[in-house]
């Protein structure tokens, strides 16, 4: 047990082993920083120093980790479907945004939830752009007369290239990657 003397020194009960309040607080702060940094290690990395050898199957390895401490599960890796990796199964394709027939030629459609506007400037040519206006971040509101319109401040963009046709926006809509799989349009 410690107590504080009138001169600010922290001492044990017998009055020996005195230290200044500043020294005690600095020591406590150092312990706190060490604890904080220890808790900030990257998941899956070994907690032992790099120079220390890893032994197979040691209790220090995280649960599910390989004996080498790499953080990868031991045994064959499994894909999202539970089948072993490399089994020839592909992950499922993302859900289709729309069918090509749903996008009018010379127009487009806004998908607010996905933050994308898909256009068809010419028959069979599918383009996609961010649905976020580059002026102040509003979601574009319509696609008409070969343009994409933001109703917040009336910025107008081209459906073929996302370029600004009239401001106040100063930058084009960024392109978004989509794929056409048969009649389905999907985010890439």
Show the helix and strand layout.
Elements: E1 2-4, E2 9-12, E3 19-20, H1 21-39, E4 98-99, E5 107-111, E6 116-122, E7 125-130, E8 142-144, E9 147-150, E10 155-158, E11 164-166, E12 178-181, E13 184-187
Antiparallel strand pairs: 1-2, 2-3, 4-13, 5-6, 6-7, 8-9, 9-10, 10-11, 12-13
Summarize the structure.
The protein has one helix at residues 21-39, and strands at 2-4, 9-12, 19-20, 98-99, 107-111, 116-122, 125-130, 142-144, 147-150, 155-158, 164-166, 178-181, 184-187. By secondary structure, it is mainly beta.
- Uncertain residue segments: 36-84
Number of strands: 13
| Largest sheet strand order | 8-9-10-11
Order of helices and strands: EEEHEEEEEEEEEE
Please give the count of helices.
1
User: Beta fraction of the residues?
Assistant: 25-35%
Please state the CA-atom Rg, rounded to the nearest Å. Answer: 31 Å
Report on this model:
The chain has 188 residues and is mostly beta strands. 10% of the residues lie in helices and 27% in strands. It has one helix spanning 21-39, and strands spanning 2-4, 9-12, 19-20, 98-99, 107-111, 116-122, 125-130, 142-144, 147-150, 155-158, 164-166, 178-181, 184-187. Strands 8-9-10-11 form a four-stranded antiparallel β-sheet, with no helix packed on it. A hairpin with a 4-residue loop joins strand 1 (2-4) and strand 2.
